[in-house]
Structure formats: structure tokens, C-alpha cells
Amino acid sequence: MSRLVMKFGGTSVANIERIRSVALRVKREVDSGRQVAVVVSAMSGKTNELVGWCKELSALHDWREYDLVVSSGELVTSGLLAIALQTLGVPARSWAGWQLPIKTTDMHGSAAIQEVVTDSLLACLDKGEVAVIAGFQGVASDGRVSTLGRGGSDTSAVAVAAALKAERCDIYTDVDGVYTTDPRIVPRAKKIPKIAYEEMLELASVGAKVLQTRSVELAMIHKVPVQVLSSFTDVPGTMVVDEDEIVEKQLVSGIAYSKDEAKLTLIRVPDKPGVAAAIYGPLADGGVNVDMIVQNTSEDGKSTDMTFTVGRAEFERALHIVEKNREAIGFHKLATDTNVSKISVVGVGMRTHAGVAAMMFRTLAEKGINIQVISTSEIKISVLIAADYTELAVRALHTAYGLDG
Amino acid sequence: MSRLVMKFGGTSVANIERIRSVALRVKREVDSGRQVAVVVSAMSGKTNELVGWCKELSALHDWREYDLVVSSGELVTSGLLAIALQTLGVPARSWAGWQLPIKTTDMHGSAAIQEVVTDSLLACLDKGEVAVIAGFQGVASDGRVSTLGRGGSDTSAVAVAAALKAERCDIYTDVDGVYTTDPRIVPRAKKIPKIAYEEMLELASVGAKVLQTRSVELAMIHKVPVQVLSSFTDVPGTMVVDEDEIVEKQLVSGIAYSKDEAKLTLIRVPDKPGVAAAIYGPLADGGVNVDMIVQNTSEDGKSTDMTFTVGRAEFERALHIVEKNREAIGFHKLATDTNVSKISVVGVGMRTHAGVAAMMFRTLAEKGINIQVISTSEIKISVLIAADYTELAVRALHTAYGLDG
Fold it and tell me: Which of A181, A254, A390, B213 to pair with B335, CA 20 to 30 A apart?
């Protein structure tokens, strides 16, 4: 029997009326003869409220306690959706992360899923029940609740889909697909019908916040077809699939931006082996995701500057860790800037076409936008600019690459 | 080392500021050299919100799902209080019901605690950590979360105190003790310094909502001294202790009332063996707590009327069960009244003094209040009256028994 995983984000379960309408959508899939597992987020706003309380109590709170607190919102929606389904005559039961269990690493606050134990889950589905799984959470090796980091419910959904060998993982959200860029900034942005995992990955990692990065990685590894679609309309969404399944490849698929960036520059770090490790080792141990890293060639052979960026939410943690390791690293001064944006152009077409980067730099130069940092990958070019120019840059690039609809 | 259990109700943890002040109170006890376990309720209003959502989805919701939903509020406060304690330099960790675990019966929605497994708890205390336990919840034999019914955190606290052989269980609430009656109705009500378990039990069961009934039963069985006190002041509260420890016994200790009563009368049930079982068996199976039961002698030897009361929250469930068993019971008509109050006078002194009941009936008669139903126990007399007369009755009785301060 074919299996489907459906995931509903915070706005899709924001109140009782919407939970009822989610139940109707689930019922439709059940009626079509599929086994269905549903993964739910917390009602929109709830997780922020819970995170806010933890932060209010302590900027450097115990992440194990944080996890217990912030994972509670998903328990609420999973129970409520199970009730809503039962009310429609659809057998259903809720599953907390620790009940399946979904086993994770011990990195509380941003744990990674190690295993979705499927015994109870399969028994539940085979009984004809819809399994309503609390997203965003699991249980660490010490038996304590863990969470997967913001947007982690997407990852829960894909991990469940992979474990169940589901035919598809449908991610219901408040947008009806993946666009060439943010339609709020560029009204002529177009919906992309099919996009490659790699492209989606780059778009997600640079701030097109439709899917959590790790969920796309996981989908790519396990070749789980993921559909991004809206829970408020009935139009088809964007299918995230293997590159080979996309016939007409675009040079550039989309322009992404992220305003939630913070830049840290360590001025005059010694130019000798082991310095990078001394900086990024402690950051990794502290669970800080470093994004861009730029190190220029040393002029004098003695010292160099090291710049890196982190998400703004992790800025204080990163700062704390760097300051604590000041002596071990041996830098002269620390300069920070939390008023920067990252702009990226993404497309698998770049692999075979030259001049994509040059067009980006020319376009930004024509608008008088200064590029602070450049970073590239096989299918992405990212630049850091002053946050004020974000919208201008995105619009200009969208036009330059011929993406305007 | 002496052990203390402290329990904080919803108003005591209503926001971050109050959670901080609770942490200070806990720290004071830790600093005095005690091992401390804390049991917390959900932030005030949270549980009602969660219960409301379940009811909005379905009046006859799955109680296992209800339990997952409504138990989440206590997880939040236990994590937050642990963070608040750590911020003060007090080692602390949170415990969900399923983590200790606190094992309960399978009666979801109003489960009873069967065992507080103390292995991890003792290890935690012996490490010098404060154990912050989510109240109101446990885990049933099927591994699903269970809740103990409204006010269940009191029971959690006393059960933990009994399991830990704690010297005392301090229940912090929004009142500073147990009064001779509700001070909102009778401004001259006095705080009772010491009260017997039995008296507290009768007061709790008739609506003096300071402690959950089951918590007092449990305290009585295990002889756990319980103190009721306010988290907003520093004055001593009311000690609930063994009758033998009270030197000056009052004739009547207090007047209690409950407006949340509903009355069901089964008119003309057959006067034959097995009828009461046919009525109350299914109600018990359905988890409905029947309170007063009155059956008069049959006039004609063929049929009689049966009246019973339940909490108003359980009224619809009771009605549903009685209607469903209509044929098996064989009653003629069902009359209901949700506009009744129960008024009770309570005191261990009644055991040795006559005339306590007579004074109650005379006092109510003088005020022109009609008594609908009478029920008595060794240390309590309760009557059911029209809800409109509640305040008048309580004030008159408070004066009549010489309780005015």
C-alpha cells in the first residue's frame, strides 16, 4: 500500500478552525487508499513565545531545559489533530518524539535525527490509523527531549518519509511553492514547478525559508520526493526532485537573500597552521553553525584577518565562544556587524555556463552596491552586502538573469 | 538529609517574573541545607486554554489525546523553573511525568498515581540537584501520557513527598492558607492554623478548592504533613496534619460551598435489587465522579426516585451515560438541574457533639432557604440548595457556628 507523509507548518495549524481543515485534507488522502503519517509544527507564534521565555530567563540557558520547553507546542497540535481526525471518523493517534521514538544526537537545541524507529509507527499505519507525529523533536541518548532547531519539523517529516519509504513527502506551508525569489520583494517572481535537491538546498541555506536545509539534505540522500504546497489553496506546488528528472534546466533558478546574518571579523590572527581550527573548533563544539568563511592571503606572512558569518540568532553565542577562546586564537581585535544581508544566485545551470558570477558583480556595481564578502559553490554565488540594499539587489538580479515573469 | 517537596500552582508561575521569584524561594530552602523536589503546575490560564481547544474539536474527545495536549503546560513551567534556578547558581533539572516515571492507572483524563519511581529522582537529589517535576501528569501502562484531573499537581506533589519520605510538602498557592470559609463571601472568615486531614478532605471535596481531594487522601494515608501557603507573602500558612496533633478542636472548622454542582433525578426507577448498580456502574466505568446519592424509600414498593449529583464539568458525560443505559436501568423520566449549590459544615468536633445538624437546618430555615437534598458523613453535613442562595447560606452558617473573626 502506498504511503504518504504530510507535514503541516505553524500557520496551517494556527487555530482550531485550521486544524479542522487540515484534518479534512488528511482525510482526503486516507480516502484515496493511502497510509498516511502526518507531522505537525506548533501553532504559529507558540514556539517563539516559548523561546522568548527561555531567553528572558537566561541568555545562556541550559539547552536540555530549553528543549523540553519549546518542544511542547508540537505535542499540543499532534493531540488536537488526532482528535480532529477522529471527529471525522478517521482513526488516528498522536506520537510524541520520545514515544516512537525518534532518536537524535545529544546536541540539544539543534540535534540531528539518528533513527526513526518504525516498529510502533508501522503497526499504527497497518491498523489503519493515521499517525500524527509531533515534529521538531526527538529523544537524546540520555532519555531527555531534544529539538532539531528552527524549522526542524520539515526534517522530522522527511526523516519519517525516508524511514517509511513513503512515495512522497508533502510539506504544507503558507506559500504555494518555491519562487524564483521572494514575491514580497519582486512581484514578478514566478513559481518554479520542479527544482533539484541541490538548488533547493542552496536556496534554503541562503534564506529562502521554505524548507529547513537539513530536510532537503535528508531528502536528497534518501531520494524522497518532496512537494512544497499551500494548505490554503488547492493548486499544485513545487516538486523537489533529483536533478536528472528536470528536463529544462535554467541557468539560474532563483535569487535568495537572508537578512538574518551577522558578520564577525577577527583582526590580525597569526598566520600559522592551526588557527582556523582554534577558531572554528570551539564554535562547532558550541553548536554554532558558521556559514561563510573568508580568509585572505596574508600580506606580511605574519598575520591575516578572518571573517565569518553566523545566523543572527547565534551571534551572541558565537561572540561568547570567540571571546572565551581569545587567548588560544590570539587575535588582535574583534569587529562585528549585525547589519548585513546575504544575496545569492542559485542554479544547476551554472555548472555548464560561464559568466554567471560576472553578471552578478556587474549588476550590483551598476546599482552602486558594495560587495563585502564573496563565497561560491558549484551551483551558487553568495555575496554579503549592507542590509539596506537587500531589496534593490534582489530586484536587479532577478531582472538581470531573466527571471521576471 | 532532610527532604522537602514544594509545589507551586498556576498563579505562582503565571509569568517569567513570578517564576524567578519562585526560584528564589526554592533557593532559600536549598541554602538551608535541604534536598528539594519541586512540583509545578502550568502557568495560570494555560490548562484552560488547552482544555478549551480539545472541547472545541469534540465534546467526546479521545482522553488519551486530551492528556497529551493538556499535560504540555507543566512541561513548559518545569523547564523554565529549572533554567531560573540554574541562573541563580542552583543546580536543577526538569522531569516530565514519563521520565521519572510517575506510573498511573489507564483512566486517561483522571488517572490515579500508582507509583512514583524514585531511582532517578533520588540520584538527582543526591547529586545536589533540585528536581523540578512537571505536575498533573504521569504515564499509563500503554506508555501514553496520562493526567490526574484538575488540580492534579497537588496530588503529584504529595505522591512525590510520600515516595521521598519528605519531612513536609509545602503547597504554594494564591491564598495564604485554609479559611473557615471563602473570605470573598464572608470577610470575617479566619485562617485556620492547623486542620486535620479528614476535615481538609471534607472541605476539599465540597468545594474549598485549596487542595485537590486526592492529594489530601494520599497525605493522610502516608501521613505527609502538608502546608498550604501563599507564594506572594511570607506568613505561615495552614498545616494539614493528623487529628491527634490538634489540641484545641473546634466543633465546626469551616463552611464550604460548591457552585459547580449538577443534579440528576431518575424518576420512577424500578424498586428492585441491582438498580443502583445499573446506574452507578456505567458512570464509574466512564470515569464520572458521583458525589451525593439520595434514594428515598419506595411508597408503593414498585418504583422510587433516585437523585445524584456530579461536578458540572462531568454533567454532560453523566447525562450521556445515563441516557445510553436508559433501557438497562428502566427509569421513567430524567430531570436535571445545573443551578444548584452544595453547602457543607465540616468539623471533627461533630463526632462528639450532638445538634450540629439541627443548627444547620434551623439556620437555613430562618433565612427561608429550601433544602433539596441532605447528605451526611461522620464529620460533615452537606445540603443542596438553589444556587442563588449560596452566599446568604454560607454567611448565616458562619455566624451561627461562631466562626466570625
Answer: B213
**Burial group, residue B296, by CB count within 10 angstroms (0-12, 13-18, 19+):** exposed
Least Cα separation, residue A140 to chain B (angstroms): 12
> Could you report the per-residue pLDDT of A169-200, keeping only the tens digit for each?
999 998 888 899 988 899 999 999 999 999 99
Q: DSSP per residue over B327-388, as a string?
A: HHHT-SEEEEEEEEEEEEEE-GGGGT-S-HHHHHHHHHHHTTPPP-EEEEETTEEEEEEEGG
Contact between B263 and B373 under an 8 Å Cβ cutoff? The reply is yes
Q: Which residues of chain A lie closer than 8 angstroms to B87, CB-CB?
A: 57-58, 61
Residues B217-252: tens digit of each pLDDT: 999 999 999 999 999 999 999 999 998 888 777 789
Q: What three-state secondary structure class fits A156?
A: helix
Q: Which amino acid is at A84?
A: A
* CATH of the domain spanning B256-400: 3.30.2130.10
Which of B54, B60, B62, B88 is the best substitution to test chain A (most A C-beta atoms within 10 A)?
Answer: B62
ipTM: 0.77
CA separation for the pair B163, B117 (Å, rounded): 8
Domain A3-174 identical in fold to domain A256-400? no
* Domain-wise residue ranges, chain A: 3-174, 256-400
Burial category of A325 from C-beta neighbours within 10 Å (exposed 0-12, middle 13-18, buried 19 and up):
middle
The pLDDT tens digits for B163-194 are 999 999 999 998 888 899 988 899 999 999 99
The architecture of the domain spanning B3-174 is: 3-Layer(aba) Sandwich (3.40)
d(CA A191, CA A214): 22
**Three-state DSSP class for A240?**
strand
**HSE, side-chain direction, 13 A CA sphere, residue B390:** 18
Nearest to B4 by CA among B198, B13, B27: B27
Using a CB–CB cutoff of 8 Å, tell me whether A48 touches chain B: no
User: Can you read off the three cell numbers belonging to residue B235?
Assistant: 506568613
pLDDT in 10s for each residue of chain B, 405 residues:
799 999 999 999 999 999 999 999 999 999 999 999 999 999 999 999 999 999 999 988 999 999 999 999 999 999 999 999 999 999 999 999 999 999 999 999 999 999 999 999 999 999 999 999 999 999 999 999 999 987 799 999 999 999 999 999 999 998 888 899 988 899 999 999 999 999 998 886 655 567 888 899 999 999 999 999 999 999 999 999 998 888 777 789 999 998 889 999 999 988 888 888 889 999 988 888 888 888 877 777 788 888 999 999 899 999 999 999 999 898 999 999 999 999 999 998 888 777 888 899 999 999 999 999 888 888 889 999 999 999 999 999 999 999 998
B99 phi and psi angles, rounded to 5 deg: -85, -35
- Site from A16, A17, A80 to mutate, B interface, most B CB atoms within 10 angstroms: A80
Measured between alpha carbons, how far is B173 from B11 in angstroms, rounded to an integer? 7
A325, pLDDT greater than 70: yes
Q: pTM (2 decimals)?
A: 0.79
For B357-363, which contacts have Cβ atoms below 8 Å and span 24 or more sequence positions? B357/B381, B359/B400, B359/B401, B360/B397, B360/B400, B363/B396, B363/B397, B363/B400
CA–CA distance, B152 with B22 (Å, rounded to integer): 20
- Cβ of A86 within 8 Å of Cβ of B53? The answer is no
**A47 interface with B at CB cutoff 8 Å:** no
The H or E element containing residue A79 is helix A72-87
What phi and psi, each to the nearest 5 degrees, are found at residue B35? -85, 135
Q: How far apart are CA A57 and CA A192, in angstroms?
A: 43
- Contacts of B399 by beta carbon, 8 Å cutoff, 6+ apart: none
Measured between CB atoms, does B51 come within 8 Å of chain A?
Answer: no
Q: Which of B170, B172, B190 is nearest to B181 (CA)?
A: B190
